[in-house]
Amino acid sequence: MLGAKHPPNNEHIDDNMVKMEVNLDDISGEWLGYVMDLLFEAGANDVFYSPIYMKKNRPGILLQLLCSSQKLDKMKEILLQETTTLGIRYYPITVHRMERRFITVETKWGMVTVKQGISTKGEVFQSSPEYEECKQIAKEHNIPLKKVYAEVWKKL
Amino acid sequence: MLGAKHPPNNEHIDDNMVKMEVNLDDISGEWLGYVMDLLFEAGANDVFYSPIYMKKNRPGILLQLLCSSQKLDKMKEILLQETTTLGIRYYPITVHRMERRFITVETKWGMVTVKQGISTKGEVFQSSPEYEECKQIAKEHNIPLKKVYAEVWKKL
Amino acid sequence: MLGAKHPPNNEHIDDNMVKMEVNLDDISGEWLGYVMDLLFEAGANDVFYSPIYMKKNRPGILLQLLCSSQKLDKMKEILLQETTTLGIRYYPITVHRMERRFITVETKWGMVTVKQGISTKGEVFQSSPEYEECKQIAKEHNIPLKKVYAEVWKKL
Amino acid sequence: MLGAKHPPNNEHIDDNMVKMEVNLDDISGEWLGYVMDLLFEAGANDVFYSPIYMKKNRPGILLQLLCSSQKLDKMKEILLQETTTLGIRYYPITVHRMERRFITVETKWGMVTVKQGISTKGEVFQSSPEYEECKQIAKEHNIPLKKVYAEVWKKL
Amino acid sequence: MLGAKHPPNNEHIDDNMVKMEVNLDDISGEWLGYVMDLLFEAGANDVFYSPIYMKKNRPGILLQLLCSSQKLDKMKEILLQETTTLGIRYYPITVHRMERRFITVETKWGMVTVKQGISTKGEVFQSSPEYEECKQIAKEHNIPLKKVYAEVWKKL
Amino acid sequence: MLGAKHPPNNEHIDDNMVKMEVNLDDISGEWLGYVMDLLFEAGANDVFYSPIYMKKNRPGILLQLLCSSQKLDKMKEILLQETTTLGIRYYPITVHRMERRFITVETKWGMVTVKQGISTKGEVFQSSPEYEECKQIAKEHNIPLKKVYAEVWKKL
C-alpha cells in the first residue's frame, strides 16, 4: 500500500553515483532558486549550494549535486542551459545506504508516515516523520509544526 | 586577432585535473587574500574559499583549488610556503568544458568582448560580456556597471 | 532547590541590552575559539561569529555579542586585549524574554532538567532538555545522544 | 489595472520599521524552511537566515526579519510558537524606499510585468522582470529561464 | 612625515556613524566585487558581505556598510545606481575608536610601517604591520608573506 | 620524551585516506557540536561543517570528515547512531604530509612546544606554538593569548 509510494529499500553500497560541481559568480540568487527545483525534478538525488569566496572580491556559489551516472548527461544539459557556466566538473562517489522502512503512526489529527532507518542488526536507529504530511496537518489544524512532530514522536 | 588573447577552445573532457583542499584555522584573512592571487598567477584554474566550522569553536576556511596534474607540485609549494598547513589533500576530477568563442559587440562607448558558450549542436547557449572591459568603460565614462552590461546584452 | 541554579525568570522586556560588533580579518580561527569562551565567562549573554567577505578578497569574521549595558566596558576590554581590533561598534537593542520554568523528568538513566517557556497565557510552548545533562547520560551509558532526548520528550 | 495588484509606491522614508533577530541552535533546517513561509504570510517585509558559529561548537542560524512596528506582536507570536527560542531581540530601523512603477513588456510568449525603480530626478534606474511570470513562461514553453529574462531586457 | 598619510588618531567615541544594510538576491557576484570597491572609494569606513538564505530557495547576499552620517546620501546613490535594490535600511551606531599610532620598523628588506593601538592607560595593546608594504616586500624579494610578518614581529 | 606524545613524522604521501560526507537538514546545532567531538575521539583525522542551502528553503549542514580507510566502518557507525542520516557518501583522497618536528621554546612563563614543518630540502617552513599550552599559560598568568604567542615567536 505504502509500498507503492515507498518501495522497501534494502541496505546497499551504491558505486554508481557521481558528484558534480559548478562554481558560479555571474548568476543571481533568483535564478539559482529555480535551477535547484529543475535539477530535483530531473532526478538528482541531492542538490545544494555553499557560499564561496571567489577572485576579485566576488561572493559566489558552489553548486553541488549528486546523481547516478546514468543521469550525468541530463544534469549537464540543465546546468549549461539554466546557469551561466561553461564547464562542469565531477568525480565518482560511493554511497552506503541503510535499509529504509515506512510505518504509519496515528495521531489525533490523522495518520502520519514515518521513515525509519534499519541497522544491519535489524534495529531501528532512525525515525523521521514525513515533513509534507506534518506540514499539511499543521496548516489545516492551525497548530505549530513542532507540536505535530512532538505528537508523532510520542506515539512511536 | 582576438585569437591571440583568446584561443578558440573546443568542447572536450579533461581527465587531467586535480582538486586540492586545505583546512585552515591558524591563518588570518589578510594572508588568505594574498594567497589566492599567488595561486592564480601560478596557473591554478580556480581557487576559492568556504567558511567551515572546525574543532574547539574555531571559524576556519576550506581552501579549494583546481589545477592540471602538471601544476600539482607548484601548487603544493605555494600552499606550504604561504599558508600554515602541514598537509595537503587532493583527488582527480573530470572537467567537461564546452566550446568557447569570443565575439565583439559595438556599444556607444566602444567595443566589448563577449565570451560565448557553444553547445554540441552548435547553438550559442551562453553570452558573458568581459568583466574587465565593462568595468573600464564604467570607470572611464562614470556610468553604472549595470548600464554597460545592459547595453551589451541589447546589442547581442 | 533547582531554584538555586535556575532562578525563576518572569516574562519581561529588557531595554538595557547592547549589541556589539567587530569585523576581523587579521586574526586566526584558533584565537577566536578562545575569545568566545572568555566573553561568555565574563558575562556576555550571547557571542557568535558570522563569515563575511571583506575587502582585498579577505575571508573575515563578524563577531557579535549581546550584553547588558553594565557589561559594555568589560567586553570592550576583552575585545581589545584578545582580538586585533582598534575599534568596536555597538547599539542598544530591546530583548523580550519569556517566562522560564525548570522541571525535572525521570528517565531510566536518571533525572533530567527540562527548561520550559511559558506564554503570557500560562501555556507551556517550549520544552528543552538540558544539553549538558543529556550529554553526560549519553557518555556514561554509552548511548546515542538522540536516544536520551527521545526518552525525555516521551516522558514530558 | 495593474494598479490593483501593484499600487504605485512613492519614494519615502519609513521610520516605522523594526528589525527582529533570533539565534537558533536547537532547531532543524526542516522546520526553519517552514517558519520562513509563515512569517512572510503573516506580513513580514523580509525574512532571512545567516549561518553563525555558536558556543560549544554548534553551527547555528541567525534569523532576521523586517516588519512594521504594528506587526511586532504577530511576529513574536509566530517565532515563539514555531521556533525553539525563549527570547527575541529587536531595534528600530529606518527604510528609504524609492518610487516603484510597474510596466508591462510584450514578448513572443506573452506579457511580462517589469518592476521599475524611479529616482528622485524621475529617471528609471532599476528594471526587474517579475520572477513568477518569467518562471511560468519558462515552464510552459520549456525554455531556459535566462532566455525569458534576456528577451524581456531586449524589449525594454 | 608619516603624519601626512596617517594623522594621529586619539581615542574617542564616535556617535555620528550609520550602519546601512541591503538584501540582494538578483545580482551577480561579479557586480558585487565591483560595488565594494566603489563604496570604499566614496568614503565608506567599512563594507562587507554575508551569505544569507532568502525566500524561494535563493542564496542571497546581505551587504552591510559603515559610514559617517554625512556620507549617507552618497552611499545611497551608489547603492541605487550599482546594485538592484529599491530600498535601503539603516540605523545609528556608536563606534569606540582607540588611539592609533604609526611607527616604522627596520627589516633587512627595508622599513615597514606598523599601526599600533594605544590603550587608555598608554599601553601598546595592538601592533599590525601594514599589509600593503609587507606584500610589496614579499613580491619584490620573492619571499613568503608570512616571513615578512615574522621578521617585523621580531623587530618590535 | 616529547617523542612519546609526538612521534617524529616523516614526509609521506598517504593513499589510504577517505573523505566522508553527510548532508543534514533535520538535526539541531546542539547535537552537531556533540557529534564532532565523538568523531574526533574515535580517530577521525579531521571533522568540519559547512553551511549549505538545501531544498525547500532549508539551511542545512554539510558534515565532512577525513579518516583512514580502516576507520571507515567506525565512522559510519557513529554517523548513523548520532546523526539523522540514512546514507553516507565517501571517496578516496590522497594526503601529502610534510615532516613534522617538535621543539620546545623557553618563555618567561615556562616551556612551550612548537610544531615545525620541515620541507623536502630540510628547511623549517612552518612553526606553530601548541595552542593548548599557550592557552594554559594565558589562563594561569591572566595575560592575553596573543601576548603568549608573540613571546614564543620572538624566541624562535
Compact description:
Chain A is α+β, with helices and mostly antiparallel strands and 156 residues long. Chain A is built from 5 helices and 7 strands. The first copy, chain A, has 2 domains: 14-96, Alpha-Beta Plaits (2-Layer Sandwich); 99-155, Ubiquitin-like (UB roll) (Roll).
Structure in words:
The structure is a homohexamer of 156-residue chains. With 156 residues, chain A is of the alpha+beta class. Chain A folds into two domains: 14-96, Transcriptional regulatory protein pf0864 domain like (Alpha-Beta Plaits), CATH 3.30.70.1380; 99-155, mk0293 like domain (Ubiquitin-like (UB roll)). Chain A has helices at 2-5, 29-41, 72-82, 131-141, 145-155; strands at residues 12-24, 46-54, 58-68, 87-97, 99-107, 110-118, 124-129. The first copy, chain A, has a four-stranded antiparallel beta sheet with strand order 2-3-1-4. In chain A, strands 5-6-7 form a three-stranded antiparallel beta sheet. In chain A, helix 2 runs antiparallel to helix 3 and helix 4 packs across helix 5 (145-155). Chain A starts with a helix and ends with a helix. The model of chain A is unreliable at 1-7 (pLDDT under 50). Chains A and B meet through strand 2, helix 3 and strand 4 of A and helix 2, strand 2, strand 4 and strand 7 of B.
